[in-house]
Design a protein that fits this description.
By secondary structure, the chain is an alpha+beta fold. It contains seven helices and ten strands. It has helices spanning 3-8, 18-32, 124-139, 144-167, 212-216, 222-233, 299-316, and strands at residues 45-54, 72-80, 95-102, 108-114, 179-180, 185-188, 194-203, 236-244, 264-276, 293-295.
Length: 319
């Protein structure tokens, strides 16, 4: 399938997923309980003020306003992946970094990353199936044969992601972690050329993790404490990298990485300077794109919009 074929097969909008989204959020609640007023995933988080200074190198690939030459403001939310807002940082291995850029025309666009390069489910349906299976396994209502069957069904799609989670070491800082935005998008330039892309955030000072001994010494919420201390002296800086997909690289499968040798473009630097209260109504929907960027045909990417809206609806009602 070539690039333009892929784009013409895009779902019309996230709305078609709204019933399935409620099922997904219900499944998460059944597995992990409800923490009223909080996000149904990545419940624990901290917002920061930032600005993004583009390098200008993105202009060849996209007309997106924040990837030209003009600096734009941004809000960043760092998070732990758990649904429990009180869980100790060490107990939720994967971390998130969601960035909302303020565009010159008053609009916004988001990029949402985590510290593993691929996701564990290929479609919304398999996401729900995996979460429900985990719940039944946890509740002890899944027979051995059924468990083996479920593991066999989903093992090949989940394997890379589960191994990546297993390999994660406790981060020394939210600011010294590498975040992957996982899904493919397209950058579209002024000639209308569509370039498949995956985005990554690379910490300017490198990745730093804690040894088991050091980790054991940390207070429960050490990542937030560390950021507060850091911002007294310096900003946290991340490079935004565009990884360029080539013919044959999957754009519809968040469980599969692209080959390591793909060309990488330095799109600019994000400077994060201080902790701020969470802006009202903040939803880091990864489908909130802008002119010059298009969604790929990844079913998980397209589904997330409805799932995040559902979670936002529940938490804004105090549920
Ligand atoms: C079927 C797939 C997925 C479902 C159902 C799902 C579900 C959710 C939900 C319900 C929230 C809370 C939204 C809110 O209340 O604002 C959330 C937040 C989040 N998710 Fe996902 N998610 C999925 C896939 C992913 C993937 C592939 C990533 C990797 C980039 C990811 C990273 C995050 C992050 C970083 C947050 C926190 C955003 C913030 O700080 O506001 N999720 N997810």
């Amino acid at each position: 399938m070539n690039t333009s074929d892929r784009i013409s097969h895009l779902p019309a909008s996230g709305e078609e997923y709204s019933g399935l989204a409620a099922e997904a959020v219900d499944a998460i609640e059944e597995l992990s309980g409800v923490h009223p007023g909080y996000r149904r995933a990545h419940a624990k988080g901290i917002c920061c003020r930032a600005f993004f200074r583009p390098s200008g190198l993105g202009m060849e690939f996209t007309t997106a306003a924040h990837l030209q030459e003009q600096q734009v403001d941004a809000v960043v939310r760092f998070s732990g992946s758990s649904t429990d807002p009180a869980l100790a940082d060490l107990l939720s291995p994967a971390k998130g970094m969601a960035v909302q850029f303020s565009l010159p025309d008053g609009g916004i666009t988001n990029l949402v990353g985590v510290t593993i390069p691929v996701f564990f489910a290929r479609t919304p349906e398999s996401f729900i199936d995996i979460v429900r299976t985990a719940h039944r396994a946890q509740a002890g209502t899944l027979g051995t044969l059924e468990l083996i069957k479920e593991i066999t069904v989903h093992f090949s799609e989940s394997k890379t992601s589960l191994l990546a989670v297993k390999r994660l070491k406790p981060p020394a800082s939210y600011a010294e972690s590498h975040y992957y935005c996982i899904h493919a998008y397209y950058m579209v330039n002024s000639a209308g050329r569509q370039q498949p892309v995956r985005f990554e955030w690379i910490p300017e000072t490198g990745v730093r993790t804690l040894s088991a001994e050091d980790a054991a010494q940390q207070p429960e919420h050490y990542l937030e404490d560390e950021l507060e201390l850091r911002f007294k002296d310096e900003s946290a800086i991340f490079q935004l990298v565009a990884v360029l997909g080539e013919e044959g690289d999957p754009t519809d499968d968040p469980t599969r990485a692209w080959p390591e040798d793909r060309r990488r473009i330095d799109l600019g630097r994000l400077h994060i300077s201080e902790i701020i209260p969470e802006p009202e109504g903040l939803v880091m929907d990864p489908t909130a794109i802008t002119s010059g960027i298009q969604l790929s045909d990844d079913p998980i990417l397209n589904f997330r919009s409805a799932a995040y809206a559902d979670s936002h609806h529940r938490r804004s009602e105090g549920r």
